[in-house]
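User: I'm curious whether this sequence folds into something compact or stays loose and floppy. Could you predict its structure so I can see for myself?
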Amino acid sequence: MPGSDTPPSASHQPVTQADLSQLTIGVLGGTGPQGRGLAYRWALGGLRVVIGSREPPRAETTAALVGERAGFPQVRGASNAGCAAEADLVVVAVPFDGHAALLTSLRPALAGKIVIDCVNPLGFDGRGPYPLDVPAGSAAEQAQTLLPESRVIAAFHHVSAVVLEDPEVSRLDTDVLVLGDDREATNLVCVLADAIPGVRGIYGGRLRNAGQVEALVANLISVNRRHHTHAGIRITGL
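Assistant: Here's the prediction. I'll summarize afterward.
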């Protein structure tokens, strides 16, 4: 039930990766590095993926390349609107400056669906990256405000796009914090994270806590620049 942190009832069947095989995963902004990398990993795992873009021909070209690299033909390209309409589960991987306008335009198509927001509102200046002030509190909370009939979850903020797209990396070494107010939805998104070898999806709290998760990316970028790497995060003790 949305807004509940209570455990599922005894009759509730746990979500498994087999359940994901019945779903189509849409990636809005899927021609960008993060969206393209996530699409590649899920296609590599045999999941159906639709890549969305403002430019459908670009989405179709990207989908063909991703499908070929993954050895899995069930990757399609479409407009962002077509992607939102077709997908059962939708990932938002667009630049923050286009976030509000895109989600507002797709509100009817996204009604009733789980929407996974992985947008990081960051600015850059001569001193490096820094988190932007978002009136709603975070990009994910902005998404929930704009999509009141959707089940918005925050996740996949700290996964390196470079590592996701590298075919030489068979297993990633990172955890994904999954935040949201809908227990069933966070469980499903954790399983979606687990579908990428080497990744663990870990419940990280309510959606109101998404701001610091998004902002942490500025710190990771600084770490990566200093050490010339593509670091992620791990939660110890689990």
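Summary: The longest strand covers residues 199-205. Residues 1-12 have pLDDT under 50 and may be disordered.
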